[in-house]
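Extended Data, record Homoserine O-acetyltransferase
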Amino acid sequence: MNLPAGLVLESGATLAPVQIAYHTFGTLNEARDNVVWVCHALTANADVLSWWNGLFGPGCYFDPADWLIVCANILGSCYGSTGPLTPVGDAAEPLYQQFPLITIRDLAAAHEALRLELDLTRIHTLIGGSLGGQQALEWAIQQPEVFTNLVVLATNAQHSPWGIAFNEAQRLAIFADATYHVGTPTGGQLGLKAARATALLSYRSYDAYGRTQAETDPDRFDDFRASSYQQHQGDKLVARFNAYSYVALSRTMDTHNLGRGRGSIAHALSQIKARTLVLSISSDVLFPPAEQQLLARHIPGATYAEMDSQFGHDGFLIETAQITQFLEQFYVPSLVH
């Protein structure tokens, strides 16, 4: 979808033109009440069946045979929507590190523009984890009459000092790569690799590393499995993402504060009318359960549940069997605990 006039951002700047890439799976039913809208996390894309397999896809809880599933790539990303590498202006040059600050509210505004373009008057379920959960909460506050159900996982009402510090540490790694400041499509790749290695420490847990990266050779004193894992994961992200989008979207996450201009976080959350399920992960050190408990306390009638997982924050992508069980309980009120 194209918005030739662009979007007026929360900062007051205008991003124009704007392109929003999205995928749909399944078919809208005659009653037009079977829409599931997915808000994706930091480095994901609009193809939700590729990265949330086990929850979305044939035979999964959200099966395209039953639902119209919509997922839009967020602004600032590199998977089709307008971002730092998108050519703009008369000279058709990318903005690179000059890409404007995009807030969570701007992401929600882009989702809303797409919803109107698709003429979807009612969303059965709005779902997202991490940065996706931040978007979902913001959008549910902005448009309380649109959503019947809201499901948020491993997310929060305001990005924490801990989370911002992790993001800043990653950006410092990217800024330390001199190629980032030149402004080329491959700028900052070594910095991005280091940033990803840093991020993984917040996405997983002590137990997860101990279980998957422990050494089997007691005589080893170099080239540890955990070291190789960090290198490999950094290389994987560099192969599919770019440093400029990573910087832009980490800054977007830092802006998240549902209470900004609304009196308080509690008041903002009280505006949500959707029936809400809030899921946390026991081992999540980046978005600890206390943050989801706060959401559940202030969203009227919200259901709260905690997943027992050793995967840390990444559990919201991995623990699809547990998520499915909680969804089955949530959608049958008599079985909700």
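Summary. The CA atoms of residues 69 and 222 lie 47 Å apart.
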